[in-house]
Write a sequence for this structure.
């Protein structure tokens, strides 16, 4: 799948805040090496989580196994029985990267919206710079 994978890492959840909305929680965590931090809103009915869970996060430009572009074909248009990257994950969203900011030292901040559920990541420039595109798929599994 080569260059379709824009970012992939495992995050350790350190905090979950579910006080503001009924079915949405804001997850906070960091990578095993502590270099990248994450704040992610998830639908807790679809994907319940607990503090100390480890989540595998993939941000990709397509769900096609061969890395080919979607060509306007959304995830809903995948035919029955047709394999995709989404089959390997428990929680999948499509969203828009709407902001980049320079962080401290060699860090960069990335802001992504998945229909109002937000993802904020801060980490090394070299790890997050492939995200300088418009749309991405978020794939998460425990």
């Amino acid at each position: 799948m080569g260059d379709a994978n824009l970012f992939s890492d495992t995050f350790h959840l350190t905090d979950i805040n579910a006080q503001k909305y009924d079915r949405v929680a804001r997850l906070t965590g960091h990578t095993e090496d502590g270099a990248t931090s994450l704040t992610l809103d998830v639908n807790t009915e679809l994907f319940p989580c607990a503090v100390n869970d480890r989540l595998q996060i993939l941000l990709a430009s397509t769900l096609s196994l061969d890395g080919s572009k979607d060509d306007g074909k959304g995830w809903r248009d995948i035919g029955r029985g047709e394999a995709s990257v989404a089959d390997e994950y428990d929680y999948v969203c499509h969203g828009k990267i709407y902001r980049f900011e320079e962080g401290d030292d060699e860090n960069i901040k990335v802001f992504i919206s998945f229909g109002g559920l937000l993802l904020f990541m801060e980490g090394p420039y070299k790890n997050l710079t492939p995200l300088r595109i418009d749309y991405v798929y978020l794939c998460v599994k425990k």
In short: The longest strand covers residues 5-17. The chain has a mean pLDDT of 90. The chain has one helix and eight strands.
